[in-house]
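Action item from last week, closing it out:
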Amino acid sequence: MRAISQTFRCFDEVARRGSVRKAAEALHLTAAAVHQQVLNLEEQVGTPLFDRLPRGMQLTTAGEIMVAAVRRGQRDFDNAMAQVEDLRSLRRGHINLAVSHSSAEQLVPEVIEAAMKNYPGVTYSVRSGSGENILKWVANGESDIGFCLRRKPPPGVEEIRAFPQHLGLVTPPGHPLAALGKLPRLRDCLDHPLILMTPDTELRAMVDQIDHREHRKVRPLVETSSVAMVRRLVTGGTGIGFLIPENVAEDVERGTLVWTGLADAGARSFSCLYQRAGQTTAVAMGMFLQFLEAALLTIEKRFEQRAPLPSLTAFAQ
């Protein structure tokens, strides 16, 4: 066990043994050195931590509070060190993941590629589907982690992390809707040819939740379950689409597409990670989730100048 600090180690040992001399013997230090560490801590805290009694050292009320905090900190430190060591020694492992169709097309492959550069021995099983199916796979144990738009999880499944998502208008460069000087609303887009995801997809659910009265006016030119097809048709000038930043990050970076966040309140949602309640995250999965979060944060930073995106810290629940 690596101690957080020598002072805390000495203080804790005296508290356990009730004696400076016995603590010094256990720590292979001089009694004077151990006593000085205790005095230094008492000076820093500003109050005695021990009652010096004929039968030994007894914690004061302040000392009991401090020793509990020191031991909690030591446990957290030990756990963190163990997790770091697990990551350093990670050679093999398997990640069983369920994600939305849109995340499976760009985001998840990029995260897997980044993770494999550091941990090439880890293998992956990735299923894609609707949010309802994703949570069903998590509930029955077919997938360890699910990643989809926020929804009420079924019994036995819990949300473990949330990332803000902002539905945006996707157009070719130079399109008039991209030059409005303000964030467009869904109703501003309805007179243009629309390339929409099919009703069974997560992205279409985001469009549907904005405004049902507006939605009744939506008559898509093309409906597809493929994000790649939306990007291709929009790039070619066939119409406009509605996607989230992770779907178009590379296209926007290359300048082949323009993404503009919708001003409608319903355009803001969350993509969430779900797992079975009480499940312990495996080392390999924890590693993958770190890479996933890093990728989402990078995308958020790229787009935060293009629309007022909500920050992870402000909106994560």
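Closing note: The longest strand covers residues 157-166.
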